[in-house]
Amino acid sequence: MTVKIGMIGAGSMARHHLNGLQRIPLAEIVSVYDVNREGAESMAAIVGAKVVESVDDLLNPDEIDAVFICAPQFAREDMEEKAASRGIHLFVEKPLGLELPSVLRKEQAIREAGVLHSVGYCLRYYDTVQQAKAYLEGKTIHLIHAYRFGGSHPAPWWRQQNMSGGHLADAVTHQVDMIRFLAGEYRSVSAMFGHNSINGLYPDATIADGGAVSFTLSSGAVGTITESCVSLHHSASTIKFIGADFFVELSVNGQVLTIVDKDQQITVTSRKDPTYEQDKAFVEAVAAGSKDGILCGYENGMRTLAFTLAAHQSAEERKVVEIDN
């Protein structure tokens, strides 16, 4: 069957999905909505889709089987619940929101509706990340060291804490999620955030320019995540998993895998496009009526969000915050 898709949002992330969906024979993009009608028209023209006047118009189960929700996290309102209540399968970009109660409510609505769902943690779909997961299965990790440094997002809303959730929630969430995916659930978090540089570049910014996060996992492993969104002369994104008898590193956002132990020292670079692989898995799941192949559903993405929110709570309250699993 052909999976008929509606797209909410026409920004850079939506266009990235559009590029991938065009390569999937089962996918047909039939409608687009964005508050910026000019942007919606521009994107719709690429695939011959129609532009609709509202989210309600787009979420028509007679016209679409699935929806890609690529609107910014502050602007989603009840899109997920509406889609689920109408029997429309949904893909939602990360992060899922800015506060947990509304995301919990959405998760319940999606679960009770029985629709298929996927969240945009695309790095899980790298073959290198899958290889790392298979290697680490059953091994004892005692230390995790992660970092992500780089420039900030170009959209002005991204620099507002109450709209983006900050760099940890919006971008470094990929590293937060990969740690969960490969090493298990978080148990506690302690975090500090700074504002030393960002207001010199963007006087109206309210997000932090740097963060230092310490955590424990349910397994007993401990680790750190350090991050900066105003590192203009150095970019990097790496996670290191350290055991007594092995070392695993995923760098370049998971694209490059290194494994070292007494029997081997290998480095593998993925040639896959993880967003395409993620979108293909979702479209194929909808076509088959099965969640097989979807690596991150809504409840799973909600757990990653919960950690980033707990990190900011820790910084505000100056205490260790326990993670509710």
Count of β-strands: 15
Distance between the termini: 38 Å
Q: Tell the overall outline.
A: globular
Mean pLDDT: 97
Strand composition percent: 25-35%
Number of helices: 12
Radius of gyration: 20 Å
Helices and strands, in order, run as EHEHEHEHEHEHEHHHEHEEEEEEHHE
Helix content bin: 25-40%
Question: Main sheet?
Answer: 9 strands, mixed
Q: Indicate the structural class.
A: alpha/beta
The residue ranges in which pLDDT falls below 50 over 5 or more consecutive positions are none
Going across the biggest sheet, name each strand in turn: 14-13-12-11-7-10-9-8-15
Question: Would you mind describing this structure in some detail?
Answer:
The protein is α/β, with parallel strands linked by helices. It has helices at 12-21, 37-47, 55-58, 79-85, 100-113, 127-136, 161-164, 166-170, 173-183, 198-201, 274-288, 298-317, and strands spanning 3-8, 27-33, 50-51, 66-69, 89-92, 117-119, 143-149, 186-194, 210-217, 222-228, 236-243, 246-251, 256-261, 264-269, 321-322. The strands form two sheets. The chain has a nine-stranded mixed sheet. A six-stranded parallel sheet has the order 3-2-1-4-5-6, sandwiched between helices. α1 (12-21) crosses α11, α4 runs parallel beside α5 and α9 crosses α12 (298-317). The protein is globular.
